[in-house]
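Tip: read the tokens left to right.
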């Protein structure tokens, strides 16, 4: 009887274990991605309220994140979502009616076009990507060659804008063999670091060549602070740039040096209490500062991917990413409707001073925060 009872217990235990293995706990990245698509089934609606141009960074960044999800899971829902958006923007002749090369923000959706060309080899995507590439030819620059953030931000260079343009350009160079694209990426990434990277490895939000912007220091032209999401865009770029930028390029090591300094600076700036990073990244102990979700997702992505690629010491940085992951998932909350909301987010422009940054509203479920959350959590959950 005892043997039979033991056998029965073992059968139940194994059945329960197999059930748990067959039905593992859902991953936060999947929950958030599915929630976003359910809430926003038409990707052409991903833009600011009242914004007439739908070919801009908000949708571009979501497509960037959805591609991460497709690679991680293999689920065709993400591929279809990206294709739906791209086909809403690109006609059968490769024209992009919504593309206006008047701001770096408007180049980012081209990254999704390159993805679709890689996967389908459809000629219309190749033509469309070429037109975006041409948009850089006459784009305005500072005297030393940095792209303006936009024609409305004359002489201004924002660290987030470097991501918007160069994420497209480095992939374009890799896909087409356009070596001049690599040279441009090197110039933009290293020059902005030369202006904005602080001794602690972090980059200030921007630089104004004219020194006339309200936020610019009248002597240096620099912004006053390191903003979480702004630095985060650069972090995402430097996490992915080595996927495309040739190791044989003479400027490769320059970018690696910036990368190492940035990662070291982020490790030092992490909030030890929450594991997250703050709105003003390197002043977490200052009054009024707060943990910001979007930038945290971006920094988590950079550090975890750099560990996975062998660029960072795993023993040193794994505790950092584990704390960051534990912190960021606490900002995700399920609503009664089944949607996931992300709290304590910030999507803003350059501010005049520390107080202006920390008194910005703590937003909920911004487009950027979803992209960042997906990038960071998927890297943790699918790359063990």
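Filled-in amino acids:
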């Amino acid at each position: 009887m005892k043997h039979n009872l033991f056998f029965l217990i073992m059968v139940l235990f194994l059945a329960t274990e197999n059930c748990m293995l067959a039905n593992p706990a859902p991953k936060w990245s999947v929950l958030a991605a599915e929630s976003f698509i359910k809430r926003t089934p038409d990707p052409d609606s991903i833009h600011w309220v009242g914004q007439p141009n739908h070919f801009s960074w908000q949708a571009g960044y979501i497509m960037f994140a959805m591609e991460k999800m497709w690679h991680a899971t293999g689920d065709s829902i993400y591929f279809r979502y990206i294709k739906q958006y791209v086909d809403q923007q690109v006609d059968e002749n490769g024209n992009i009616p919504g593309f206006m090369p008047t701001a770096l923000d408007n180049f980012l959706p081209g990254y999704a076009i390159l993805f679709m060309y890689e996967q389908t080899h459809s000629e219309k995507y190749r033509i469309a990507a070429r037109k975006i590439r041409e948009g850089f030819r006459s784009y305005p620059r500072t005297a030393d060659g940095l792209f303006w953030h936009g024609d409305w931000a004359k002489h201004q260079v924002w660290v987030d804008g470097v991501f918007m343009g160069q994420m497209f350009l480095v992939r374009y160079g890799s896909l087409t063999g356009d070596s001049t694209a690599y040279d441009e990426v090197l110039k933009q990434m290293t020059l902005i670091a030369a202006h904005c990277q602080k001794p602690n490895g972090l980059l200030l939000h921007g630089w104004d060549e004219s020194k006339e912007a309200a936020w610019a220091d009248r002597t240096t032209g620099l912004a006053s602070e390191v903003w979480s999401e702004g630095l985060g865009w650069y972090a995402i770029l430097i996490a992915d740039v080595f996927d495309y930028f040739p190791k044989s390029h003479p400027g490769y090591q320059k970018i690696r040096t910036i990368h190492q300094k940035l990662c070291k600076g982020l490790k030092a700036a992490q909030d030890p209490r929450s594991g997250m990073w703050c709105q003003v990244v390197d002043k977490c102990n200052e009054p009024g500062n707060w943990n910001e979700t979007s930038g945290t997702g971006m920094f988590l992505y950079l550090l975890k991917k750099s560990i996975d690629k062998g660029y960072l010491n795993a023993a040193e940085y794994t505790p950092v990413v584990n704390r960051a992951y534990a912190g960021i998932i606490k900002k995700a909350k399920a609503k009664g409707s089944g949607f996931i909301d992300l709290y304590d987010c910030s999507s803003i422009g350059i501010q005049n001073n520390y107080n202006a940054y920390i008194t910005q509203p703590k937003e909920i479920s911004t487009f950027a925060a979803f992209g960042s959350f997906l990038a960071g959590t998927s890297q943790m959950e699918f790359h063990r």
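The mean pLDDT is 93. The chain is about 55% helix and 5% strand.
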